[in-house]
Amino acid sequence: MEQLLENLIEECQQYVEKGEVASYIPELAKVDKNQLGICVISTTGKVYRAGDYLNSFTIQSVVKTIILLQALIDNGEEFVKERIGVEATGKPFDAINMRAGNLESQHLNPMVNMGAIAMCSLIKGRSEEEKFEKLLNLTRKLACNDSIEVNQDVYLSEKRTGNKNRALAYLLKSYGLIDGDVDAVLDTYFKACSISINCEDLACIGYCFASHGKPPRSDERIFESQYATYVNAILTTCGMYDGSGEFAINVGIPAKSGVGGGIMGVVPTRMGIGIFSPGLDDKGNSYAGIRVLERLSREMFLSIF
Ligand code: GLN
Predict the structure, then answer these.
(1) Which atom of ligand 1 is nearest to the CA of 61?
(2) Helix-strand-coil percent breakdown of the chain, rounded to 5?
(3) Which partner for 15 in 175, 184, 212, 288 could form a disulfide, CB atoms 3.0-4.6 Å apart?
(4) d(CA 235, CA 205)
């Protein structure tokens, strides 16, 4: 398996140049795009790694899966579904998905920015600090890594320049889709996107969703099984934004990308996958990362379809 991963990384190295690093968050524009790493954790709990698997990057939109999980844990399925719709948008991550001049909860999706920002307001806590700590602790638990922290430079950079997200959040507020203070909710969202991880953390988080709540080599269930069904189903239809259909055909597993260059792959009952390469395609998904996943899926018959 390790050999297979090494071969894939070598084969796909040619694609790292093809993507572009995200530049709308100035701090991300500084990242070296010549990085490609992978980690796979199989059901036996065995960990396989290749390439730049130890390099750190910010979780960005992959954290939407964890925000959704925290919202489900705090409020239950029915409440969350009522507040944030589950239909695929087929639109870019920062799209305004209004219909007929109206914005309703059913136009939102947990995997695009508007839905994710609205979900941040569903996390329960006495203060904004407490809500974020809860999210960070859940991330650490899912990744089996207590030392995970926020990258302050990326957080401040995104906070300074995140005017589109600010606009989306105020639009949500004006339609009554956010409770509480908009800036405080946005702060939780910006901090969450700036959590710093590596491929192994990502593979471990993916593993927890693949195993319906059990971290590798553990019998302790850290969340209810049905929440994994909920999250994985949404990843299948919307995890790669407006690239989700193509990805379903070519790779065929629930997955979530982030503009930091990470992709988390979930192969239900079989494995968790973490990939990192910061050069992105025009949809904001890791260019080389998708090429690696396509080959891995073909080699190991991972497609759930
Ligand atoms: N923090 C980014 C944003 O909100 C996340 C987007 C992404 O990873 N696709 O713009």
Answers:
(1) 8
(2) 50, 10, 40
(3) 288
(4) 14
Name the residue ranges covered by the structural domains of the chain.
2-60+197-300, 63-193
Ligand 1 neighbourhood includes 157 CB (under 6 angstroms): no
- Pocket residue to mutate for ligand 1, from 24, 93, 150, most atoms within 8 A of Cβ: 93
Is 63-193 the same fold as 2-60+197-300? yes
Distance CA 263, CA 62 (A): 7
The CATH number given to 2-60+197-300 is 3.40.710.10
pLDDT tens by residue, 178-226: 989 999 999 999 999 999 999 999 999 999 999 999 999 999 999 999 9
Local structure of 185: helix, strand or coil: helix
Whether 61 lines ligand 1, by a CB cut-off of 6 Å, is yes
Does the pLDDT of residue 43 top 90, yes or no? no
Distance CA(57)–CA(288), nearest Å, equals 15
Indicate if 185 belongs to the active site. no
Q: Is the CB of 193 under 6 A from ligand 1?
A: yes
